[in-house]
């Protein structure tokens, strides 16, 4: 599905692919740019680049791919619910102030110059990002104003370099993360279910994801926008932040979305938590996992002419060419063979585990993002 | 949009405090993307545009491979005057949904955007020495990050900067400036002044045009006027806009020279050295 953005302009010969694949499956893997398996490429980031938006960020990867994300919020009237259902809801929310959001309060669009608006790859990227964002249902609650009105959040993402030089999902995810962290909504002045009135003073506005320092004001704060990381496996090696060339020989690639919760630990009912030790450091939560089709998956495996219906009559009978079957199935040194069959469950599990483990990659990334100054 | 430019006559000051012949603040950067062949960032007041140039490169493959939108944008905007003997210029404009006050998403097929693309491609084709790159493509993508009037002018200026960075030979800088006229009422309105470099408020209220000139000369390359203007005002507006173009050219040239100076001083182009895009919130 994500083929259009994963496989662009990759001019590697089968021999090069085989070399790359074998060096990545060594222990420890040898990567073309000399990084370790878990090392990220450096990136530059800044927030608050667009004064006209509620929040914005710009991130530049080391390979030169760059993205700008702007978050814009608009007040929208809530859809009228069917009568009976509406009554129930109101009664429900009278009891406790049940703040509930809906998923269509957030709209994410990805724009890559040279791609159509409805290109499957951009739609797929946007869906993956919104999936992670909406996974825990916490985010849309922040957009609740009152029972009649809510914020509608538009997250517009632009990739500046086209075609992107590597699979743009991590870039977009990190940029969105920063943009959301810097997003501010004006302070509400009206009360209850009145038509909303807002404070003109931008200094009085509140962050949609409040910083820890201002935690004291409310109890529900603490979570952070999710981060989606790209992880790939070659053999038994798990490699993070793959470059375009590395992705080309991946046996499997996963987009792992991780959220963080700083809330008090007493919620023992959180069975979803796949975190390490709950006490120290960050509490990470797995929000979603998606498999990405690496280009290697899109390569049709070679079929000997003898068994190829399209080349009927071209090749000799199978018996005459005993090496054909071996060449198709066995690993031959120096010959690139696209991976076939599914990924082992154990490897998928290990990939997710490696992201979430204590002191693992997700923590490292979040620490790095913490260092970005939110204008 | 009920807005008052009638106060202009009182002090001869515009809404944002400028006089008739003053430009808004210009801020430009060149070579902002290390990975692109050429890139630039230009602010004219609150209109902010980023331009990325790819090419001149071999045509065809990229266009066919990079999904059909490139060719769709190309068919609308490319100037294939003599397709084999000169480089094609492909322009794609990406309007960020966040660029206006109210979020408005413009589809790629929006007629307005297509017209901007076509205008830009045609005017650049007139200035660039495309005949030096037969059977190749120069593709520009312009990202509109924030818009507040004079959009076409800012796009042309940003494209010029990026093309200078990409090293595409051109006759001279193609610079553009918009101009409007305060005379909206009667032909006998003797005291009407031309205004240059309109912002969004003024554009909605006054008749205006965009003039692109070849460098500091009076040679007009682009002239776009989409509103009703009294013929007697037209000349004044064009002269004022051409004057603005002279100033803009001087500024763009200073940006290029400054960057060139720095590159020479450093000995080489340092990667990522121009990352700072300092916009205040």
UniProtKB/TrEMBL annotation, chain A:
<dbReference type="GO" id="GO:0071035">
    <property type="term" value="P:nuclear polyadenylation-dependent rRNA catabolic process"/>
</dbReference>
<dbReference type="GO" id="GO:0000176">
    <property type="term" value="C:nuclear exosome (RNase complex)"/>
</dbReference>
<feature type="domain" description="Exoribonuclease phosphorolytic">
    <location>
        <begin position="39"/>
        <end position="186"/>
    </location>
</feature>
<dbReference type="GO" id="GO:0000177">
    <property type="term" value="C:cytoplasmic exosome (RNase complex)"/>
</dbReference>
<dbReference type="GO" id="GO:0034473">
    <property type="term" value="P:U1 snRNA 3'-end processing"/>
</dbReference>
<dbReference type="InterPro" id="IPR050590">
    <property type="entry name" value="Exosome_comp_Rrp42_subfam"/>
</dbReference>
<dbReference type="GO" id="GO:0000467">
    <property type="term" value="P:exonucleolytic trimming to generate mature 3'-end of 5.8S rRNA from tricistronic rRNA transcript (SSU-rRNA, 5.8S rRNA, LSU-rRNA)"/>
</dbReference>
<dbReference type="GO" id="GO:0034475">
    <property type="term" value="P:U4 snRNA 3'-end processing"/>
</dbReference>
<dbReference type="GO" id="GO:0071038">
    <property type="term" value="P:TRAMP-dependent tRNA surveillance pathway"/>
</dbReference>
<dbReference type="InterPro" id="IPR001247">
    <property type="entry name" value="ExoRNase_PH_dom1"/>
</dbReference>
<dbReference type="GO" id="GO:0071028">
    <property type="term" value="P:nuclear mRNA surveillance"/>
</dbReference>
<dbReference type="GO" id="GO:0034476">
    <property type="term" value="P:U5 snRNA 3'-end processing"/>
</dbReference>
<dbReference type="GO" id="GO:0005730">
    <property type="term" value="C:nucleolus"/>
</dbReference>
<comment type="similarity">
    <text>Belongs to the RNase PH family.</text>
</comment>
<protein>
    <recommendedName>
        <fullName>Ribosomal RNA-processing protein 42</fullName>
    </recommendedName>
</protein>
<dbReference type="GO" id="GO:0016075">
    <property type="term" value="P:rRNA catabolic process"/>
</dbReference>
<dbReference type="InterPro" id="IPR020568">
    <property type="entry name" value="Ribosomal_Su5_D2-typ_SF"/>
</dbReference>
<keyword id="KW-0271">Exosome</keyword>
<keyword id="KW-0963">Cytoplasm</keyword>
<dbReference type="GO" id="GO:0035925">
    <property type="term" value="F:mRNA 3'-UTR AU-rich region binding"/>
</dbReference>
<dbReference type="Pfam" id="PF01138">
    <property type="entry name" value="RNase_PH"/>
</dbReference>
<dbReference type="InterPro" id="IPR027408">
    <property type="entry name" value="PNPase/RNase_PH_dom_sf"/>
</dbReference>
From TrEMBL, chain B:
<keyword id="KW-0271">Exosome</keyword>
<feature type="domain" description="Exoribonuclease phosphorolytic">
    <location>
        <begin position="191"/>
        <end position="242"/>
    </location>
</feature>
<dbReference type="GO" id="GO:0016075">
    <property type="term" value="P:rRNA catabolic process"/>
</dbReference>
<dbReference type="Pfam" id="PF01138">
    <property type="entry name" value="RNase_PH"/>
</dbReference>
<dbReference type="GO" id="GO:0000176">
    <property type="term" value="C:nuclear exosome (RNase complex)"/>
</dbReference>
<comment type="subunit">
    <text>Component of the RNA exosome complex. Specifically part of the catalytically inactive RNA exosome core complex (Exo-9) which may associate with the catalytic subunits RRP6 and DIS3 in cytoplasmic- and nuclear-specific RNA exosome complex forms. Exo-9 is formed by a hexameric base ring of RNase PH domain-containing subunits and a cap ring consisting of CSL4, RRP4 and RRP40.</text>
</comment>
<dbReference type="GO" id="GO:0005730">
    <property type="term" value="C:nucleolus"/>
</dbReference>
<comment type="similarity">
    <text>Belongs to the RNase PH family.</text>
</comment>
<dbReference type="InterPro" id="IPR036345">
    <property type="entry name" value="ExoRNase_PH_dom2_sf"/>
</dbReference>
<dbReference type="InterPro" id="IPR015847">
    <property type="entry name" value="ExoRNase_PH_dom2"/>
</dbReference>
<protein>
    <recommendedName>
        <fullName>Ribosomal RNA-processing protein 41</fullName>
    </recommendedName>
</protein>
<dbReference type="InterPro" id="IPR020568">
    <property type="entry name" value="Ribosomal_Su5_D2-typ_SF"/>
</dbReference>
<dbReference type="GO" id="GO:0000177">
    <property type="term" value="C:cytoplasmic exosome (RNase complex)"/>
</dbReference>
<feature type="domain" description="Exoribonuclease phosphorolytic">
    <location>
        <begin position="22"/>
        <end position="169"/>
    </location>
</feature>
<feature type="region of interest" description="Disordered">
    <location>
        <begin position="56"/>
        <end position="81"/>
    </location>
</feature>
<keyword id="KW-0963">Cytoplasm</keyword>
<dbReference type="InterPro" id="IPR027408">
    <property type="entry name" value="PNPase/RNase_PH_dom_sf"/>
</dbReference>
<dbReference type="GO" id="GO:0034475">
    <property type="term" value="P:U4 snRNA 3'-end processing"/>
</dbReference>
<dbReference type="Pfam" id="PF03725">
    <property type="entry name" value="RNase_PH_C"/>
</dbReference>
<dbReference type="GO" id="GO:0071028">
    <property type="term" value="P:nuclear mRNA surveillance"/>
</dbReference>
<dbReference type="InterPro" id="IPR050080">
    <property type="entry name" value="RNase_PH"/>
</dbReference>
<dbReference type="GO" id="GO:0071051">
    <property type="term" value="P:poly(A)-dependent snoRNA 3'-end processing"/>
</dbReference>
């Amino acid at each position: 599905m994500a083929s259009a953005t994963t496989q662009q302009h990759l001019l590697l010969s089968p021999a090069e692919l085989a070399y790359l694949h074998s060096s990545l499956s060594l222990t420890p893997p040898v990567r073309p740019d000399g990084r370790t398996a878990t090392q990220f490429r450096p990136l530059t980031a800044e927030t608050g680049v667009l004064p006209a938006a509620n929040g914005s960020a710009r991130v530049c990867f080391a390979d030169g791919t760059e993205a700008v994300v702007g978050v814009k919020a608009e007040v929208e009237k809530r859809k009228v619910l069917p009568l009976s259902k509406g009554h129930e809801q109101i009664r429900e929310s009278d009891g406790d102030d049940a703040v509930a959001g809906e998923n269509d309060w957030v709209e994410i669009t990805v724009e890559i110059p040279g791609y159509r608006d409805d290109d499957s790859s951009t739609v797929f990227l946007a869906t993956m990002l919104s999936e992670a964002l909406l996974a825990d249902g916490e985010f849309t609650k922040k957009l609740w104003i009152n029972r009649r009105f809510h914020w509608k959040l538009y997250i517009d993402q632009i990739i500046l370099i086209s075609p992107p030089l590597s699979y743009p999902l991590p870039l977009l995810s990190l940029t969105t993360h920063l943009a959301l962290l810097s997003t501010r909504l004006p302070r509400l002045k009206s009360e209850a279910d009145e038509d909303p009135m807002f404070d003109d003073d931008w200094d009085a506005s509140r962050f949609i994801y409040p910083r820890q320092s201002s935690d004291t004001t409310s109890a529900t704060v603490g979570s952070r926008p999710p981060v989606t990381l790209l992880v790939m496996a070659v053999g038994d090696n798990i490699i993070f932040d793959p470059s375009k060339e590395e992705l080309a020989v991946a046996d499997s690639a996963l987009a792992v979305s991780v959220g963080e919760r700083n809330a008090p630990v007493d919620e023992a009912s959180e069975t979803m938590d796949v975190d390490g030790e709950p006490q120290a450091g960050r509490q990470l939560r797995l929000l979603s996992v998606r498999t990405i089709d690496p280009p290697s998956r899109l390569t049709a495996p070679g079929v000997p002419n003898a068994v190829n219906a399209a080349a009927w009559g071209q090749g000799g009978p199978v018996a005459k060419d005993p090496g054909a079957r071996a060449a198709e199935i066995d690993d031959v040194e120096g010959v690139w063979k696209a991976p076939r069959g599914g990924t082992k469950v154990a490897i998928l599990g290990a990939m997710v585990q490696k992201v979430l483990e204590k002191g693992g990659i997700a923590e490292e990334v979040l620490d790095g993002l913490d260092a970005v100054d939110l204008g | 949009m009920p807005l008052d430019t009638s106060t202009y006559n009182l002090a001869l000051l515009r809404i944002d405090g400028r006089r008739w012949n003053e430009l808004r603040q210009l801020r430009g950067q060149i070579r902002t993307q290390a990975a692109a062949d050429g890139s630039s960032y230009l602010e004219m007041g609150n209109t902010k545009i980023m331009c990325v140039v790819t090419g001149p490169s071999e045509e065809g493959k990229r266009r066919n491979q990079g999904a059909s939108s490139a060719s769709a944008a190309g068919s609308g905007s490319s100037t294939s005057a003599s397709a084999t003997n000169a480089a094609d210029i492909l322009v794609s404009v990406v309007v960020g949904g966040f660029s206006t006050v109210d979020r408005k998403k413009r589809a790629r097929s929006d007629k307005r955007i297509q017209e901007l693309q076509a205008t830009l491609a045609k005017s650049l084709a007139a200035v660039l020495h495309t005949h030096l790159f037969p059977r190749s493509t120069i593709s520009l993508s312009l990202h509109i990050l924030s818009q507040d009037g004079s959009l076409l002018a800012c796009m042309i200026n940003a494209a010029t900067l990026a093309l200078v960075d990409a090293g595409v030979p051109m006759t001279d800088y193609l610079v553009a400036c918009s101009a409007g006229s305060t005379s909206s009422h009667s032909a006998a309105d003797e005291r009407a002044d031309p205004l240059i470099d309109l912002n969004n408020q003024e554009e909605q209220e006054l008749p205006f045009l965009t003039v692109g000139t070849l460098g500091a000369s009076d040679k007009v390359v682009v002239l776009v006027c989409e509103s009703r203007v009294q013929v007697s005002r037209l000349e004044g507006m064009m002269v004022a806009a051409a004057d603005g173009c002279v100033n803009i050219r001087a500024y763009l040239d200073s940006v290029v020279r400054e960057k060139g100076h720095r590159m020479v001083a450093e000995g080489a182009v340092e990667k990522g050295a121009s990352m700072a895009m300092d916009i205040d919130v």
